TrEMBL record:
PANTHER family linked: BLL7967 PROTEIN, IRON-REGULATED INNER MEMBRANE PROTEIN-RELATED
Taxonomic superkingdom: Bacteria
Transmembrane regions: 12-38, 157-179, 209-239, 360-382, 403-425, 437-456, 468-489, 495-515
Protein name per UniProt: Peptidase
Keywords: Membrane, Transmembrane, Transmembrane helix
Organism, scientific name: Psychrosphaera saromensis
Length: 545
């Protein structure tokens, strides 16, 4: 490849990293945590979900029978049930929904949302469907999941931004592989006992190559998930469905409306749920959708995850007879490989297709993806500070370094702060909406952390943020034991296996951070060439061009 081309790729690689490096860290780090948002962190954040919840088919059938008499009959066209046994939602939710034709000939979705206690099925709230979905009630688990998806900027801005960041990560991967052509020769070089600069240089190369397949997968699926709903779906609807996005989704997704016969016949909901549990013990059933409740031609769709299909499976039944019809994936109505590819997008991005071990692997690799742009930026800063002919002033590099410390260290600190904050909120604001408090705590900690390196010495700021993160992680387990009486010594009695495991993991991570703190800040810090290969390569490019 010509040297002029390599030079352009090097410049592109550098500028993409400079412009998007911090945002890429924020997205990748939040994603590494969001892998456990459902159900692990959701269970931990809500005391009513900590103990296992059994399926209650009879209870839900009685519930639907009772409330179907209360709502407008038009709202029986579609009933959606969030089953509580998977513990992915703070409440068990039932939506009665009708598809109303407007004078313009379009279809409008109206309905009522009921929330019930996940175990007792006692009614907690009744809300208009439009109002319900316009008011976000978030605990720390949902907050982190939404933050990763759109940075809480909403649609379409947030999704477009995260989608574009996925594309920039793909650009960085491709250009990096071309620029560092000799990187394979240094695949096993990691001089951890040398200077911090050399460790940084070797780490950047090793992380980029060893996990390149994961980086590429996350970049592509992230770009797709971010851009699909705001660009690809509307575009496809405009081309093939006269702009009707609902019609597009209805055509290609698993749930299809029933053909109403107007002949009343009870829907065998409990039999269908029981039959599904017996026939498919490998699936964790989350949602039930009833199309045409109480009609002879009613259809029941019960969706579960954990089977051989990455995106989950939907079992379809005749509602009146409880007769099994077929099983299909979420996009099973798409022919060929297209449906399988679409079904794989979300699981491949979040790693929720192979149990907790796959989630752990995805989280660790996600942290590596987060460190990749940061190590690149740190190398750029140190090269600039040590260069005899830097491209920018020394103060510019120093200020960028402070911004890097405050923004990236700050988001880690803010995330760690949400754990003790959630325990306190559960105690002092029990049963109330925590959304506003979660927002204030997270962004306040982040903003303060962002300012700290500009107020005190940046090395002192690093040490302070490091210690605070470790301390916050360590205190979660004793706080949980004091405030909720849930701890390792009574876990067999309470069966709070998931929440106690989260406490233990946070405690161990805190101890590891303290250990890493001692090791990290004991490394020699004298200024040395941090990336001789890149420096020599860029100089060679300049000469040849």
């Amino acid at each position: 490849m010509k040297s002029i081309t390599i030079k352009k790729l090097y410049q592109l690689h550098s500028w993409v990293g400079l412009v998007t490096g911090i945002l890429l860290f924020i997205i990748a780090f939040s994603g590494a945590v969001a892998v456990f948002a459902l159900p692990e962190l959701k269970i931990w954040a809500n005391e009513e979900l900590r103990a296992p919840i059994k399926h209650n088919p009879q209870g839900f059938e009685q519930l639907i029978n009772e409330y179907s008499q209360k709502v407008d009959p038009v709202y029986l066209e579609e009933i959606q049930i969030r089953l509580p046994a998977t513990r992915t939602s703070q409440t068990s939710r039932v939506i009665f929904e009708g598809h109303i034709q407007t004078p313009e000939g379009k279809e409008k979705h109206e309905g009522i949302v009921y929330e019930f206690h996940p175990e007792t099925l006692k009614e907690l709230s009744e809300t208009d469907m439009e109002v319900f979905f316009n008011q976000d009630k978030l605990d720390m688990a949902s907050f982190l999941a939404h933050f990763h998806a759109d940075l809480h900027l909403g649609r379409p801005v947030g999704l477009i931004l995260t989608g574009l960041l996925g594309l920039t990560l793909m650009v960085s991967i491709v250009t990096g592989l071309f620029v560092h052509r000799k990187i394979l020769a240094q695949l096993f070089t990691f001089r951890i006992r040398k200077t911090f600069s050399l460790m940084l240089n070797d780490g950047h190369k090793i992380m980029s190559v060893w996990a390149v397949l994961f980086h590429s997968t996350i970049a592509f699926t992230g770009a797709f998930l971010g851009l699909a709903t705001v660009i690809l779906v509307p575009a496809a609807a405009y081309v093939g469905f006269n702009g009707d996005q609902d019609k597009l989704l209805e055509t290609f997704t698993a749930v299809k409306p029933a053909i109403i016969s107007h002949v009343q016949q009870p829907t065998q909901l409990s039999n269908i749920i029981e039959q599904s549990l017996e026939s498919r013990p490998d699936l964790n059933f989350r949602n039930v959708t009833i199309m045409g409740y109480g009609d002879k031609n009613a259809l029941v769709y019960i969706n579960g995850t954990g089977g051989e299909h990455l995106g989950g499976e939907t079992l379809i039944y005749n509602g009146a007879t409880a007769e099994y019809i077929k099983t299909q994936a979420n996009f099973g109505r798409l022919d060929g490989v297209a449906g399988k590819i679409l079904d794989a997008m979300f699981p491949l991005h979040y790693g929720n297709f192979g149990g907790v071990l796959v989630k752990i692997l995805w989280s660790v690799l996600g942290m590596i993806t987060a460190l990749l742009p940061i190590t690149g930026l740190m190398l750029w800063i140190e090269r600039g500070l040590n260069s005899q002919q830097p491209n920018h002033s020394r103060r510019t590099y120093q200020n960028f370094n402070k911004l890097l410390i405050g923004s990236c260290g700050g988001i880690v600190l803010a995330t760690a702060a949400l754990f003790p904050a959630q325990l306190i909120l559960n105690t002092v604001m029990h049963g109330l909406d925590h959304t506003k408090s979660i927002f204030i705590i997270f962004f306040s900690v982040w903003i303060v952390s962002l300012l700290i390196p500009f107020v005190i010495n940046y090395k002192t700021a690093i040490k302070l943020i490091f210690k605070l993160i470790a301390g916050l992680l360590i205190i979660v387990m004793p706080m949980d034991a004091i405030l909720t009486s849930s701890h390792l010594f009574n876990v067999l009695e309470t069966q709070h296996y998931v929440s106690v495991s989260v406490d233990l993991v946070l405690f161990v991570l805190g101890l590891l951070m303290l250990f890493g703190y001692k090791k990290l800040f004991s490394l020699p810090t004298e200024a040395l060439p941090i990336d001789e290969d890149i420096n020599q390569q860029s100089e060679q490019i300049e000469k040849e061009s």
